[in-house]
Amino acid sequence: MQISKVNKKEPVPLHDQVAAEIRRAIADGEAAQGERLPPAVDLATVLGVNKNTVIRALHILRDEGLLDFTRGRGIRVVGSPQRGAVMTRIDELLVFARTQGYRHDEVVALIQARS
Amino acid sequence: MNLSPTRSNPTREAPDSAELLIKEARRAKRLRRLRNIAIVFVALVVVTVISVIQTMNKTPSKPKPETVVAKFVDSMKHANDTRFVATYRVYHYDWMGNGVITMAQIPSPPGTKAPTATAIRVVANTPTSIETLMVASRSGSKWEPT
Predict the structure, then answer these.
(1) Per the CB < 8 Å rule, is A28 touching B14?
(2) Mutant choice from B12, B21, B29 vs A, greatest count of A C-beta within 10 A
(3) B-chain residues near A38 (CB < 8 A)
(4) B104 and B53, same structural domain?
(5) Which residue has the higher pLDDT, B100 or B22?
(6) Is B116 helix (H, G, I), strand (E, B) or coil?
(7) Which pLDDT tens digit goes with each residue over B88-130?
């Protein structure tokens, strides 16, 4: 079966759309924390995209802290989508602060002073 | 930079069962494995059937006539003046039909001058092989298959 959630005509890159679909599926409880995700080839079959697109999306989700890749153990859900979103925003904040001349420890100090 | 709350909405609607991405992917995984197992199974069955057919159609290798005749002649040389009954099954010869050759040799009693009697019985369509076998024997008497 193919789920037509990915629109190839949209300006949003395909791997971002796929990452959003997987993120949404995890948020909906289709895969709990610690569960394994199906192989990328099967996700690609269902979504109707290339396997490499799914792999790229999975790497994005791993960078967000949502997934963990371990050789021989597959892809596991290790975080929540909320935590992944916060991690993404933290990364963006650190990049933005760096462009404004702030180092990481200074950003941490600013956050601690704020709270 | 705009930081907005990212908590999901608790009133979010449950997804349609037909749209469950991970569930469908797991189903696709099972189907893919079943298909692969079926392909391997069919391939094994085909290979097994082909090998069985080849084994059934395989003919036994032909013995080399020269080797067999040479052994026969050699055995006859050593069997001079001894009592023996030899049975040879012959098959797959181009120059001779399938069948059984039975040979018996009875040496003369000691003190007599009669030659050793040897008999050959051929149960087959062997128009040309009889002479060949007779040459191998050494009785000296007249040979006639019974």
Answers:
(1) yes
(2) B21
(3) 22, 25-26, 28-29
(4) no
(5) B22
(6) coil
(7) 777 777 766 777 777 777 777 777 766 666 666 666 554 444 4
Instruction: Give CA–CA dist B128/A67, Å, rounded.
Output: 87
Q: Which of A59, A106, A105, A60 is nearest to A85 (CA)?
A: A60
Cβ B95 vs Cβ B64: under 8 Å: no
Looking at the fold, whether B73 and B125 belong to one and the same domain comes out as: yes
CA distance B139 to B134: 9
Mutant choice from B9, B16, B22 vs A, greatest count of A C-beta within 10 A: B22
ipTM: 0.71
The CATH code that applies to domain A14-79 is: 1.10.10.10
pTM of this structure: 0.52
Query: Tokens 């469950």 correspond to what residue?
Result: B20
CA A110 to chain centre: 27
Regarding whether B53 and B70 lie in a shared domain, the answer is no
Cβ pair A84, A61 in contact under 8 A: yes
Answer yes or no: do B80 and B129 share one domain: yes
